[in-house]
Design brief:
By secondary structure, this protein is mostly beta strands. The protein has two domains: 121 residues, Immunoglobulin-like; 156 residues, Jelly Rolls, CATH 2.60.120. Helices cover 8% and strands 41% of the residues. It has four helices and 22 strands. Strands 1, 2, 3, 4, 5, 6, 7, 8 and 9 form a nine-stranded antiparallel sheet that branches. A hairpin with a 4-residue loop joins β16 and β17. The longest helix has 8 residues. The protein is elongated and about 100 Å long. The two termini are 43 Å apart.
C-alpha cells in the first residue's frame, strides 16, 4: 500500500457547466478538498505480464451529506473530460482500474446537490508507470511492495519481480527467495517442475553446469599445472567445460554444490581423450559417507563399503560425446540393500589429458 501525502487546496464553487464564480450561501462558498493516493493492487490480467491493476483513491472532503464527488481521469497529453466523470458518489474513496501502458492522472471535484454547483479541481495526482528496472512492475508498485525498483529480481530467486507477482497473484512472496524453506530457490522449483510451496517436492531437475555463461568459475583444481576452460565445441555446437590434467592425480571439484536430498540421479554428456573417472559423494540415511566412482568398463556395480564402483560400459570411444545417466540410489541398493541415500554432497573429476563435460544435472528420475 502506497500513501502519498494529501495536498489540500481551497477552491471556489462554480455552477456546473459555467465558468463564473458562484457566491453561494454562508460558509458553503468555499470548500476545502484534497486528494491522496492509496494504491491497492488486486488483479493480474495477463499470464505473461501485468496489464492493469486496481487502485483505490482517497480524498478528504466535507461532512456535509449534500456534497457528492466527481472523479475525472486523463492520459498523459490529454485533457480532463469534465462532462464525463469516471466515478461519482458520496463516499470519499473509490476504486478504479488503470492500465500499465501509460500514466493516468486524476482530479476530484465536489458537487453541491442543493445549490447545483461544482467546485474547481483538487490537486492532481498520477499513477506513474515508470519501470526503472524493466521487471514488469512499475516503480510506484515496487515502493509499496518493498521491492527494489532498480533490481529486476529483488529477492534473487531467479524470477523477475513482475513475473513472480504474475505467478503468485500477490506481493506476499516477492521478498522471499525460498518460499517453502526447502533449500531450493523459487525460480529453480518453478522452472524445473517443483512446487515452491511444498518443501517435500523440490525441482525435478537441477542444472549444475551447462557452460552457456562462458564461465569456468564453478570448478576448482588442486594442481597449478591443471587447467579449467570454457570452450566452444564443434561436435555439440555449444559451450562446454574442458578439464585438463597431467594425470589422474589432478582433481577438478564442482563448487557450491549444496547437499541435495531429493535428486539422486546424475546425468551429463562427456567426451574424454585419456583416462578419467567421476566421483559423486553422498551420505546415507544412517549417516554413512559414500563415494560413487563412475568410469568406463564392463557395465556393473560393486562395492560393499564406502566406495561404490559404477562401470559405464566398455564401448565408450574416445574423443566422441557420450550420454551418461546413473541412478545413484539404484546403484547403492544393488550392492547395499539396507542403505538409502539421504543426499548428494559433492562431485569431482580426475582426468589425464582433456575431459569435456556438458549438461551436468541432478534429476529426480532417469526419465528427465
Amino acid at each position: 500500500m502506497v500513501v502519498a501525502t494529501a495536498l489540500f487546496i481551497t477552491v471556489e464553487q462554480k455552477q456546473r457547466g459555467a465558468h463564473s464564480t458562484f457566491l453561494g450561501k454562508g460558509d458553503k462558498v468555499m470548500k476545502k478538498i484534497g486528494l491522496a493516493f492509496v494504491m491497492v493492487l488486486v488483479m493480474v490480467v495477463s499470464s505473461h505480464a501485468l496489464e492493469k491493476v486496481s487502485i483505490t483513491l482517497v480524498w478528504e472532503g466535507t461532512e456535509d451529506p449534500t456534497i457528492s464527488y466527481l472523479l475525472f481521469a486523463r492520459a498523459e497529453g490529454e485533457a480532463f473530460d469534465y462532462d464525463h466523470p469516471i466515478w461519482s458518489g458520496y463516499e470519499q474513496t473509490c476504486k478504479v482500474d488503470v492500465t500499465l501502458d501509460h500514466p493516468t492522472y486524476f482530479v476530484v471535484r465536489a458537487f453541491d446537490d442543493v445549490n447545483d454547483v461544482e467546485s474547481s479541481d483538487s490537486n492532481e495526482v498520477s499513477f506513474d508507470v515508470t519501470d526503472s528496472d524493466s521487471d514488469g512492475l512499475p516503480d510506484a508498485m515496487e515502493e509499496g511492495f518493498g521491492t527494489d525498483p532498480n533490481d529486476p529480481d529483488t529477492d534473487h530467486d531467479g524470477i523477475a519481480d513482475g513475473d513472480e507477482y504474475d505467478y503468485w497473484g500477490s506481493p506476499e512472496n516477492l521478498l522471499i527467495a525460498d518460499s517453502d524453506g526447502d533449500g531450493y530457490l523459487d525460480g529453480d522449483e518453478i522452472n524445473n517442475g517443483g512446487d515452491p510451496l511444498d518443501p517435500d517436492y523440490g525441482p525435478s531437475v537441477i542444472v549444475l553446469e551447462d557452460a552457456e555463461d562462458e564461465s569456468a568459475e564453478r570448478w576448482a583444481s588442486n594442481h597449478k599445472k591443471s587447467l579449467v576452460t570454457n570452450v566452444y565445441d564443434e561436435q555439440r555446437d555449444s559451450r562446454v567445460i574442458n578439464l585438463y590434467g597431467k594425470s589422474c592425480k589432478h582433481k577438478f571439484t564442482l563448487l557450491n554444490l549444496e547437499t541435495n536430498t531429493q535428486l539422486v540421479v546424475i546425468s551429463c554428456k562427456i567426451n574424454y581423450s585419456k583416462k578419467f573417472y567421476i566421483v559423486v559423494t553422498a551420505i546415507t540415511e544412517s549417516g554413512k559417507d559414500r563415494k560413487f566412482i563412475l568410469k568406463p568398463g564392463k557395465v556393473k556395480v560393486k562395492g560393499k563399503r564406502k566406495n561404490i564402483k559404477v562401470r559405464l560400459g566398455r564401448k565408450m570411444a574416445k574423443n566422441v560425446w557420450h550420454d551418461v545417466t546413473v541412478d545413484l540410489q539404484e546403484a547403492l541398493a544393488s550392492v547395499q540393500p539396507n542403505e538409502k541415500l539421504a543426499g548428494i554432497t559433492g562431485l569431482y573429476v580426475r582426468t589425464k589429458k582433456d575431459f569435456k563435460i556438458d549438461d551436468l544435472k541432478l534429476q529426480r528420475t532417469t526419465l528427465n
